[in-house]
Each structure stands twice: as C-alpha cells, then as structure tokens.
Design goal:
Blueprint (H helix, E strand, L loop, with lengths): L2 H5 L10 H7 L15 H12 L3 H14 E6 L3 E6 L12 H7 L10 H16 L8
Antiparallel strand pairs: 1-2
Helix pairs in contact: 3-4, 3-6
C-alpha cells in the first residue's frame, strides 16, 4: 500500500503537469512489509500523523516497519510497536537485541519518545472512533 492509495486521490492530473504534481506530494511513504498486511492501514495513518511535523521520525518508523514490526493495541499508550523476530532475518529482525539497537535511531539525535507516545495514543483514538480507513 502506498500513501497516495491510502489518501485515495479523486482527481487526475493532466500529463503535462505530472512532474509538478509529483514534486508537490512531498515524501511518499509505502508500507513495504508484506507479511503483516492486517495493520498496514494503521501504519499509513501513523505515517500521515508524523509527516506534517516529523518527517524524520516518519522515515525512521518506515524503516522499522519495513524490516519487520506490527502495531498492536496497548492499554496505556494506545498502540505499541512490536518487532517481528525472525532468526533468519528474512521476515524481520534477527533478534530482540538487533531491534533494540536499531530502534535507537528514534531516540538519537532527537528524542522522539514523547512525540511517538502522543501519536500512538492519537492513532488509537482515531482507530476506536472509526476514523481510519481500513479497506481500499
């Protein structure tokens, strides 16, 4: 799924304006992790929440997702990012330690922990209120 699929653009752009339209999209996020499609719509919404003010964090989250992670409900934070562990490294992180090392990119050089907690809570609020499109 790609972000422009998620947004479901309703108007077409004439061919002579394609390059201008593509440049005006900004960053395009794609859910490239094929092994957990049931939460793809949640990731796309999370990328949208991040992209308006936190493009760097959205890119980092996309990396974590694309290696292997899923969003699971969490009572305190709304949702939690759960790494998918695969010792072969084919469908996820080789180990919890590998994931823990890589997720540090969310903390350094900027501490996104608080922002991420707020966004995961907002994601849960939107999910529970039925404000997230779950099917195309």
């Amino acid at each position: 799924m790609e972000i422009y699929d998620y947004i479901n653009q309703s108007r077409t752009v004439p061919p002579e304006h394609h390059s201008n339209a593509i440049n005006s999209f900004g960053t395009v996020y794609r859910d490239l992790y094929p092994y957990s499609p049931d939460d793809s719509f949640l990731w796309m919404e999370l990328f949208c929440l991040c992209s308006s003010s936190y493009n760097e964090m959205a890119s980092m989250l996309a990396y974590i997702r694309n290696v292997g992670a899923r969003l699971v409900p969490h009572n305190q934070f709304g949702f939690m990012i759960q790494p998918i562990i695969d010792p072969t490294g084919f469908r996820g992180w080789k180990s919890q330690e590998h994931y823990n090392q890589e997720k540090q990119c969310l903390i350094l050089p900027r501490d996104y922990t608080h922002v991420l907690i707020v966004l995961l809570g907002e994601l849960r609020r939107r999910h529970d209120a039925g404000e997230i499109v779950t099917r195309m």
